[in-house]
Amino acid sequence: MKGNILIIDDEEKLRSLLSRIIGLEDYHVSEAANVKEGLKKLEKEEIDLVVTDVKLPDGNGVELTRKIKSLYPQIEIIVITAYGTIADGVKAIKNGAFDYIVKGDDNDKIIPLLARAMDKSLLQKRILGLEEKIERKYSFDNIIGESKQIKEAIELAKKVAQTDTTVLLLGETGTGKEVFAQAIHNAGSRKLNPFIAINCSAFNQGLLENELFGHKAGAYTDAGRDTKGLFEEANGGTIFLDEIGDMGIELQSKLLRVLETNEFIKVGDSKSTKIDVRVIAATNRDLQKEASNGTFRQDLYYRLAVFPLSLPTLRDRPKDIQAMAEHFLKLFFTKVNKPAAKMSNEFIEKLKAYSWKGNVRELKNTMERIALLSDNATLTIEDLPYEIKNNTSGKASASSFNLAAMEKEHIMKTLSHTKGNKTEAAHLLGIGLTTLYRKLDEYKIK
């Protein structure tokens, strides 16, 4: 079926005729004789497109259009009438109708018109579905954990999400600062506008300034045209400045001006550009200490830290590790087309005992590697990487620091998984093929 159409018309013969014509085009058609019946159908059935007469026993099709659009904005409506007037046509379009046509004008036009209206309705539903999927993906509900520490962080983030306050996310690398930033954005009034993230440590200061603020044509060699920066692209939405502590002092002063005045000057420009952007920044450094010793602007620190929010490390919430590991395993086993494996009690205990200095990111990467390499229905200690498997409740043995032994075992396990395919093994290990051959020679692996 191409889609679901509801016809609302009190003239039974005309309604039935139109229903048969539309049905022959592979649409599913429902019928209603009045406004009350039509609204009940809309409530109970999945309708994509409504075709309604203007004159109905208990109402008016033009006013019905306004009501349907307020209740179901993704549904398209075609208004038909035996006696068309310009006033009715204009009002129908203003109320949200896709089109307004007169009965008998040209019956050959109705099917192409329905097709265009249906295309628009289905596109809007797909867009709505994608928006809902994105909103679910980046909502606070998707942050896994039942520990007191993570729950407190989520509650604070939910409160600040309802405002436009600048937020400074604090925490070690891998604690999920960007996930929190995205959730704050999506829970606020700016959620339908852009969320743009940039890692300040990934650029030198000249390039970072250009990325953030853009440039005018002729600002430097090869600057052939005006270019928007990320602040301008994020207008109306949120910009997430990760690793803000790596931003140079000179650029910090320009950022301070944005926070104070909501305007900036592009590279090579002489006039200001106005913007409306919420700023969420993040760092794994002690900015307060750096502000005190002069390596970070103190005035910028206080502008950023209007609402500081510290995210807990994974080792501070060990009770969340099992649920997170299960989530990642399900995700990655599905990705590699394998049935999800269960975790043995010993496997879980080893995960909980490990320090996870890379936090959630390290746990995620570990589960992805296990999903790639393991074919076991139940995961045991032997499926764990060397450093986790040989961790003894936080007291590392001398052999656990033998990096060469760890690397050799990992390479051998990867080669076993790829059945000796060195190109694939190098890809999984994240190293070049030449590097792999060198290590095979170094560790005397055949």
Explain what you see.
The chain has 446 residues and is α/β, with parallel strands linked by helices. The protein has three domains: 4-134, Response regulator (Rossmann fold, 3-Layer(aba) Sandwich), CATH 3.40.50; 140-310, Rossmann fold; 318-442, Helicase, Ruva Protein, domain 3 (Orthogonal Bundle). 47% of the residues lie in helices and 15% in strands. It has 19 helices and 18 strands. It has helices at residues 12-23, 35-44, 61-71, 86-94, 110-137, 148-161, 177-186, 205-213, 230-233, 249-261, 287-293, 298-304, 321-335, 345-353, 359-373, 386-389, 403-417, 422-429, 433-442, and strands at 4-8, 28-32, 49-53, 55-56, 59-60, 76-81, 99-102, 167-170, 195-199, 214-215, 227-228, 238-242, 263-265, 272-274, 278-283, 307-310, 342-343, 378-379. A five-stranded parallel β-sheet has the order 2-1-3-6-7, sandwiched between helices. It is extended. The two termini are 59 Å apart.
